[in-house]
Design brief:
This protein has 254 residues and is an alpha/beta fold. The protein has 2 domains: 104 residues, Nucleotidyltransferase, domain 5, CATH 3.30.420.40; 134 residues. 54% of the residues lie in helices and 13% in strands. It has a 5-stranded mixed β-sheet with strand order 3-2-1-4-5.
């Protein structure tokens, strides 16, 4: 049975927590310096906690629930008590969160605008895919930078020439054959060196994504039976969707 209701307004260097009892009366207002690790140690099955979305919220939600407590992650943009508050301070925010949590659990008068909490394996996949996408953007930026340098020397490469230049085994030899300035060669060589390192890291991420996707093997097999779907794109879809049962209809997935 829930006896304590915690509303946490979390920031990078500190957090403010309002704790209500079963009657909805505030028992404590706590300011925590640093992270929440020591605070969480005192939580148990009699505690319910609500925190806002933000960087690290899933990590802390898992830590809180590992203590046997219930944890709700709420969307502050849909939480009108906070959004429309005239006096938006850390103390008011955590008190509003705690009060809303108490009302939700004790009276059931309204629902909390909860954010879906994915399982740990989905979180890990999402983290890897986020880095994978960033690496792809970085690789494309490097290629565009090389092309811009060449255009500055009035060099337009054919598709065949691009393959030679963007080949780690042929790049230096091909670069020496181009009629460009020494400064352009230096800049392109620097970009190519970074490009090969980024490409190598992308391959590492791909392997790690496939390894992290082993628990989803059965679902991946079903998805890749669809023409054009690869194991990688199937895992990207599964990481994005998480638990498909949380959608009431196909339209809700869009």
């Amino acid at each position: 049975m829930i006896k304590r209701f915690h509303g946490i307004d979390r920031h990078k260097m500190s957090s403010t927590v309002s704790i209500l009892n079963q009657e909805g009366v505030e028992e404590k207002l706590v300011t925590i310096k640093g992270n929440l690790k020591n605070y969480i140690k005192n939580l148990g099955p009699e505690d319910a906690v609500a925190i806002e979305t933000g960087i690290g919220c899933f990590y802390w939600a898992n830590r809180i629930e590992s203590r046997g407590a219930k944890c709700f992650i709420i969307d502050p943009y849909r939480f009108r008590i906070i959004k429309d508050s005239w006096k938006k301070t850390d103390k008011n925010d955590c008190r509003n969160i705690a009060k809303a949590l108490w009302v939700y659990i004790i009276t059931g008068e309204f629902g909390l605008p909860e954010v879906y909490k994915p399982k740990r394996d989905v979180i890990e996949l999402r983290k890897l895919f986020a880095q994978y996408r960033n690496m792809n953007k970085y690789i494309n930026m490097l290629k565009n930078n090389i092309q811009a340098i060449l255009l500055d020397d009035d060099i337009v490469l054919t598709l065949k020439d691009k393959k030679h230049l963007l080949s780690e085994k042929e790049d230096e030899e091909f670069l020496d054959c181009l009629d460009i300035t020494d400064a352009s060669k230096i800049c392109i060589k620097a970009s190519l060196d970074i490009l090969w390192k980024a490409t190598s890291q992308k391959e590492v991420l791909t392997r790690e994504i496939m390894r992290a996707g082993i628990p989803f093997e059965d679902k991946v097999k079903i998805l890749i039976s669809i023409k054009g779907i690869t194991p990688l794109s199937a895992l990207a879809f599964l990481a994005d969707i998480g638990d498909i049962k949380r959608f009431k209809s196909v339209r809700k997935m869009k």
